[in-house]
Specification:
The structure is a homodimer. In chain A, the strands form two sheets. Chain A has a six-stranded mixed β-sheet. The relative contact order of chain A is 0.15. Chain A is about 35% helix and about 25% strand. By secondary structure, the first copy, chain A, is α+β, with helices and mostly antiparallel strands. Chain A has eleven helices and twelve strands. Chains A and B meet through strand 1, strand 2, strand 3, helix 2 and strand 4 of A and strand 1, strand 2, strand 3, helix 2 and strand 4 of B.
C-alpha cells in the first residue's frame, strides 16, 4: 500500500507475478470458492443477502499472545477461523464466508502451505469460504485477523441481552480443557501432573490449539435461546457479561459445570482449582439461556445435532454478579472470573 | 482470548470494567451509531441488506511499514479507514460501516483519544459507522486492520474485469503526491528540494498521511464505468492489473497524467522522475474505464460531484502490459510499475 512496504492484497492480481503473488494465488485462490469472491481477482467481494441479515464478527490472534510461536501452522489456521465461527454459531447464524488479514514477517512457503491447506479444509467443512484478504509485511509477531460473516433471517440474531429470570443456563461441551492445555504447553503444574500420560496431554493441547465451534447448534440456539454468547474469556466472566447486558443475575451449580475426565481428575488430585477451569479462556463453547417451556425442545435439538449440553444453573432477578454454589450449597467466591492483558 | 494474553473485544462488555474496558467504551462506543452495532454490547453486528449486495473489503496498515512511527494518531486513524473507503468507492458502492481490529502494545490514552476522535469524525463524514471490533495486545508494531462494507444494488458492483477495447481510461485527482510526501518524511531528495517551502512540504505530507477517497464519485462510477479499481500500489502497476483481469491492454499519454503543481515542479527540476510518481503508492484515486458513449455523462457526473477527473489514455486489444508515451510520441519503458515488499 505504500512505497515503503507493500501490502499483497489477495484480491488483486499483480503484473508479472512475483514469487509472493504466485504463492498467494497458489495457496489462497483455491479457498475462494464463493462466486462473490470473484476468484480473488477484484478489490472487494460481494455478499448476497435476500431477506437475511449479515452477522459480522471479527477476532484476531497474535503469535506469543493468542497462540504459541511453536504451534503448528495448521492449528493456527484452524484457531484463527474457528474463534470467529464460534461467534457466528452463538448468534444463531449460518456461516457465509470470511476475509483474512495476514501480517507476516516474510513469505515462508513451509509455513504458508500447511496454514492455507488447513484453512481450506475448515472453510469447506464449515461452509465458510474465503472471500478476500490482505497480506501485509510486519517486523513484529505473526498476526491473523479474520472477519467472518453469517446469515440469519431478518432480525433473528440471538443477542446477549435477552436472558430473563427463570430461564435455565446451558453450556455446551466441557469447560476448562483449553486453559489446562495452555498450562501444559507452558510447563505449568499440568505438565508435571501429566508427565506420564501423553494421551491426556495431547488431548488437552489440542483443546487449546483447535477449538470445536458449535455451529451444529446454531439453528437450535436461534429457535430456542433467549440469550447466547460464546465462551472465550472464561465461563464465569462471560456469564457475568451476559447477565450484565441482560440486566439479570444467575445462580450456578459448580458441580453441574461439564468437565472432561482429564479435567475432573486434575481437580480431584488438587493439581488445579475450579477457578483455573471456569475463569480460563479459549473454551469456544456456547453459553445460553432458555425459557422453561423451551428447555425440552432445545435439549432434543442439541441431541439431534450431536452437541453435548449441560444445564448449569438458573437466571434470577437482580444486578449482582452471578453466584456459584458447590455441592453442599455453599457459595464459592471467585477471586477472578476472566483475564485482562493490558 | 487466551488465558495468556487477553483480547479486549469491543463488542463485549466486561464485568467490573477495568480501565481498559472503560477506555474502549468511552472512545469507541460513540462511533457505533448504527443500530446494527448494538451499542458494541454483543458478540457480533448485524448488517441489513434489502435488495442489495454487501461489498466487503479489507486493508491493514502496519506501523513502520504503511505509516511512520511518528505519524500523528489522528492521521493514522483516517488513513486506516480511508484506504478501505477508497476500495468501496471504486466498486461503485456506498459506505455501510466497518469493523476495526487494533493491535496495540498497551492502552495509551494519549494515543487512543485522538485516534478515536478522528476515526469518529471520518466515520460520520463518510457515513460509515463502526459496527464492532477487537483490540489485541501485541509486543510488535501497532497495526490497524479494517474490514469495510458498502452497499450496491444486486449484481451492480463495478469490477476490474469489464474494460473493453476503445474505452477511455480515467483517473481522479492527482498522482504521485503521496509518494513524494513519503520521500520527504524519510529525508529523501524531496526533503532537500523543498527545504525552503514548508507549505508545499506540508501539503505533500498530508497527501501521504491522509488519503482523499473519492466516495463522491461512487454513483457515477457505478452508472458509467466498465471497470474500476482504486490506485493504491502505483498507477502503472494498478492499471496493469486492471488490464490483465480484463484481458486487454492500454496506451497512456504520460503528459495527460494529472500532477499537482508541486509534483510537476519537482519533475521539471529533475528532483524526481515520472516513475517515482506513477509507480509510487498511496494515491487512493479511482482508476476506471468508460465506453465512448458514456464519457460525456461520466465527465458531467464527476463535475457535479466536485471530483477532478483526467482522461489519460485508451483501452486497446491485446495482452501486453500497458504502454506509456511521452509528448513526442516516444514510448517510455518503465523500470518498475509498483512495489513488492516481501
Amino acid at each position: 500500500m505504500t512505497a515503503e512496504g507493500k501490502a499483497r492484497d489477495m484480491t488483486k492480481r499483480h503484473d508479472s507475478p512475483s514469487g509472493e503473488d504466485s504463492l498467494i494465488a497458489r495457496y489462497f485462490r483455491p479457498l475462494a470458492t464463493d462466486p462473490g469472491a470473484f476468484n480473488l481477482d477484484d478489490d472487494a467481494a460481494a455478499l448476497k443477502a435476500v431477506g437475511e441479515d449479515i452477522v459480522v464478527t471479527t477476532d484476531a490472534i497474535v503469535e506469543g499472545v493468542h497462540f504459541l510461536p511453536n504451534d503448528p501452522p495448521d492449528t493456527v489456521a484452524r484457531k484463527a477461523l474457528r474463534v470467529n465461527l464460534s461467534d457466528i454459531a452463538a448468534k444463531g447464524a449460518l456461516p457465509a464466508g470470511f476475509v483474512l488479514t495476514l501480517a507476516l514477517r516474510g513469505m515462508e512457503e513451509a509455513w504458508l502451505k500447511p496454514f492455507a491447506a488447513a484453512l481450506g479444509e475448515d472453510a469447506a467443512d464449515y461452509g465458510c469460504p474465503l472471500l478476500g484478504g490482505d497480506t501485509v509485511s510486519t517486523p513484529g509477531p505473526l498476526m491473523i485477523s479474520i472477519t467472518a460473516f453469517g446469515r440469519v433471517p431478518q432480525g433473528k440474531m440471538v443477542h446477549r441481552s435477552g436472558a430473563r429470570a427463570g430461564d435455565r443456563v446451558f453450556v455446551t461441551g466441557t469447560i476448562g480443557d483449553a486453559a489446562l492445555g495452555l498450562d501444559l504447553l507452558k510447563g505449568g503444574p499440568v505438565a508435571l501432573a501429566l508427565a506420564n500420560d501423553a494421551a491426556a496431554g495431547d488431548w488437552l493441547t489440542s483443546r487449546y490449539r483447535v477449538p470445536q465451534p458449535r455451529n451444529a447448534l446454531a439453528k437450535a440456539v436461534r429457535a430456542h435461546a433467549s440469550a447466547a454468547m460464546d465462551v472465550s474469556d472464561g465461563l464465569a466472566g462471560d456469564l457475568t457479561k451476559l447477565c450484565g447486558v441482560s440486566g439479570i443475575s444467575a445462580v450456578i451449580d459448580l458441580d453441574s459445570i461439564p468437565l472432561s475426565d482429564v479435567a475432573r481428575d486434575l481437580v480431584s488430585r488438587g493439581v488445579v482449582g475450579i477457578e483455573t477451569l471456569i475463569a480460563g479462556g479459549d473454551d469456544y463453547e456456547i453459553l445460553c439461556t432458555v425459557a422453561d417451556d423451551r428447555v425440552e425442545a432445545f435439549a432434543q435439538a442439541a441431541k439431534s445435532a450431536g452437541v453435548a449440553l449441560s444445564s448449569i444453573g438458573t437466571v434470577v432477578a437482580g444486578s449482582t454478579v452471578p453466584k456459584f454454589f458447590d455441592g453442599q450449597g455453599s457459595e464459592i467466591v471467585l477471586k477472578r472470573r476472566s483475564y485482562s492483558h493490558f
